[in-house]
């Protein structure tokens, strides 16, 4: 069978240009030491305790794989795993490395404009920090930070600063530094006056806390007014939403906490900048702070990259109680263990750490409970001794509403979502003495859905692990990634019903779509097209194991595969004929014709030169 040698149409794809411009060996080698082993490069895997090099990099295929973790992919997925970033951030990092300018990104600015804006933010952070360290007008700010127990090394490490009360302190310095007012406005550092007559500094008379992205780049600022200053001013203000900053998806201190989170597998979340800094100063490095918002789903998704458990440390006041209730939906919507630790009334984490030390804070964190237990304890504690059933039922209803709302937004697979819902309903049933079936019915009413049938629940259940593929599924994928020119044969002859696993079906449908678009369907192309890390690892594993069996001529490989397709088709026809003989009442002539056809199909299926009619008759009898 001759393979097509025609080249695909040219494609101006920035992902493809970046992939071609970087070498995965260079990229991986910038994180870990590699040494040559045959045609591959090997090194210690960064994702598990590795004493014998188990990470293998294939320079020819531009892929990597750890044989212990059973993960693999291309250069993009490697950076995503190492840096704990989404694809766009990995693409930007690799484009910077290759000197390629990207088109406009999510923030609406080209990558080089974003880099320029980050430079402005870094310049402003340095100006604020120098002011705090040396300016006479910053003396009160220095005294405030000392009163919160923060020492000079913490102030320097986190580059804390001060913005003087003048309306144009930063604006005047920006002119001398050659920074435009438009850049200050884009970075949220300056605000245009309502009458359009000019601009003024956003941060004035405040202690400044630089906010950094996970890569450690300054993208925003938080400002706290000094105690006793201007009671009409907001206690805290943050930078507005900018092309670099979104407060609902960023956390203060994450850049310096992510390694510690990776080791402890927990993320401790506090509410204030100084709370976070006091914890860091006490040697608790897996602590971050929210930026004036409640802990939300986007925060949980972000922290899930680094930790298995989130412990939210809340003040012991009414505001803390309200935030605890808000977190319940996060618990129910995200596949992460969320716990709540509540401080005694009148204390914040900074006070506790300064007054009682690290051990007291760690004990508080260790005693944290999950939000559902917290919510139910609050409900029971809040019920008056003579409260009727209606009050208790209203409390249960509020939990069910939270569960219903979270279910609609959940990123959990449907099977896990059903299991989590069932767990919550079971706990509600035990605590309030209600029937689980009644609770489930009410939940479905709140959701406006009919009860799930057994068959629909079964359809949610995960299939066999894609790393344990049936032989035919693995054969299809090996040919697809090993001989890219076979894609035409595969998408023409192999249907979704011909393979057993969802993973294989997804890959085939992806290849079918790419082929229809006139795109190449090689291993690298599939890795870029598929977002699921499990599928990426699967394809690399299939490719590596196929290559390990030795070099086979591509045309010969496809020829064997085409023959296997013909055998499978003949086997299916033979089974259909045999079943017809067993189940149908046929006259002698029709039965003889069917037996003859069955004989021919069995010969074709098994490649046997001689086969007897008796063999076909045995099929009829048995």
How would you describe this protein?
This protein is an alpha+beta fold and 622 residues long. 54% of the residues lie in helices and 10% in strands. It contains 28 helices and 15 strands. The protein has a 5-stranded antiparallel beta sheet. Helix 16 runs antiparallel to helix 17. It is globular. The relative contact order is 0.06. Mean pLDDT is 79; it is low at 1-12, 450-467 and 607-622.
CATH architecture descriptor text of the largest domain: Alpha-Beta Complex
**Tally of helical segments:** 28
The secondary structure category is alpha+beta
Share of residues in strands: 5-15%
What is the 3D shape?
A: globular
- CATH third-level topology of the largest domain: DNA primase DNAg catalytic core, N-terminal domain
Strand neighbour order, sheet with most strands: 1-2-3-4-5
What's the CATH H-level superfamily name of the largest domain? DNA primase, catalytic core, N-terminal domain
Number of domains: 5
What is the helical fraction, as a range of percent? Answer: 40-55%
Q: What is the tally of beta strands?
A: 15
CATH class division of the largest domain: Alpha Beta
- Return residue spans where pLDDT drops below 50 for at least 5 consecutive residues: 1-12, 450-467, 607-622
Intertermini distance = 39 Å
Radius of gyration: 32 Å
Sheet with the most strands, sense and barrel status: 5 strands, antiparallel
């Amino acid at each position: 069978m001759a393979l097509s040698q025609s080249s695909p149409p040219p494609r101006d794809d920035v992902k493809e240009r970046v992939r071609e411009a970087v070498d995965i060996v260079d990229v991986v080698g910038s994180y870990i030491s590699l040494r040559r082993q045959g045609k591959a490069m090997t090194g210690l895997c960064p994702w598990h305790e590795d004493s014998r090099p188990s990470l293998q990099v294939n320079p020819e295929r531009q892929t990597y794989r750890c044989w212990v973790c059973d993960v693999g992919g291309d250069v993009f997925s490697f950076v995503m795993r190492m840096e704990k970033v989404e694809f766009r951030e990995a693409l930007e990092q690799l484009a910077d490395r290759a000197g390629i300018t990207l088109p406009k990104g999510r923030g609406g600015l080209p990558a080089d404009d974003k880099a320029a804006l980050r430079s402005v933010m870094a310049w402003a952070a340095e100006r604020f920090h120098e002011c705090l360290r040396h300016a006479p007008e910053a003396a009160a700010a220095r005294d405030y930070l000392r009163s919160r127990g923060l020492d000079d090394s913490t102030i320097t490490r986190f580059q804390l600063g001060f913005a003087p009360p003048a309306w144009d302190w930063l604006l005047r310095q920006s002119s001398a530094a050659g920074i435009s007012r438009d850049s200050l406005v884009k970075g949220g550092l300056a605000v245009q006056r309502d009458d359009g007559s000019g601009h003024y500094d956003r941060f004035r008379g405040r202690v400044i806390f630089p906010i950094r992205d996970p890569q450690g780049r300054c993208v925003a600022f938080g400002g706290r007014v000094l105690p006793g200053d201007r009671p009409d001013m907001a206690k805290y203000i943050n930078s507005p939403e900018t092309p670099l900053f979104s407060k609902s998806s960023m956390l203060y201190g994450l850049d310096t906490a992510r390694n510690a989170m990776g080791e402890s597998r927990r993320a401790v979340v506090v509410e204030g900048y100084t709370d976070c800094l006091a914890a860091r100063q006490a040697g608790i490095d897996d602590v971050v702070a929210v930026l004036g918002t409640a802990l939300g789903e986007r925060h949980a998704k972000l922290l899930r990259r680094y930790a298995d458990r989130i412990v939210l440390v809340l003040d012991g006041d009414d505001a803390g109680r309200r935030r605890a209730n808000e977190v319940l939906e996060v618990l129910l919507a995200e596949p992460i263990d969320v716990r709540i630790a509540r401080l005694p009334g009148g204390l914040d984490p900074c006070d506790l750490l300064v007054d009682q030390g690290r051990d007291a804070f760690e004990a508080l964190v260790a005693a944290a409970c999950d939000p559902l237990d917290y919510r139910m304890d609050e409900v029971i504690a809040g019920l008056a001794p003579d409260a009727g059933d209606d009050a208790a039922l209203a409390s249960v209803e509020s939990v069910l509403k939270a569960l219903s709302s979270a279910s609609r937004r959940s990123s959990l697979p449907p099977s896990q979502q059903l299991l989590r819902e069932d767990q919550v309903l079971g706990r509600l049933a035990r605590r309030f003495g209600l029937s689980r079936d009644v609770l489930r019915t009410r939940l479905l009413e709140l959701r406006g859905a009919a009860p799930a049938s057994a068959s629909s629940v079964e359809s949610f259940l995960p299939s066999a692990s894609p790393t344990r593929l049936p032989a035919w599924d693995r054969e299809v994928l090996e040919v697809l990634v090993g001989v890219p020119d076979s894609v035409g044969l595969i998408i023409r002859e192999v249907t979704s019903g011909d393979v057993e696993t969802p993973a294989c079906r997804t890959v085939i449908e992806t290849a079918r779509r790419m082929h229809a678009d006139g795109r190449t369907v090689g291993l690298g192309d599939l890795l870029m097209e598929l977002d699921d890390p499990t599928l990426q690892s699967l394809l690399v594993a299939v490719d590596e194991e196929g290559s390990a069996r030795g070099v086979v001529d591509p045309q010969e490989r496809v020829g064997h595969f085409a023959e296997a397709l013909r055998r499978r088709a003949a086997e299916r026809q033979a089974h259909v004929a045999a079943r017809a003989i067993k189940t149908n009442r046929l006259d002698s002539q029709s039965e003889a014709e069917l037996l003859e056809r069955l004989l021919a199909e069995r010969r074709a299926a098994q490649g046997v030169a001689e086969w007897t009619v008796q063999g076909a008759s045995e099929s009829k009898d048995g």
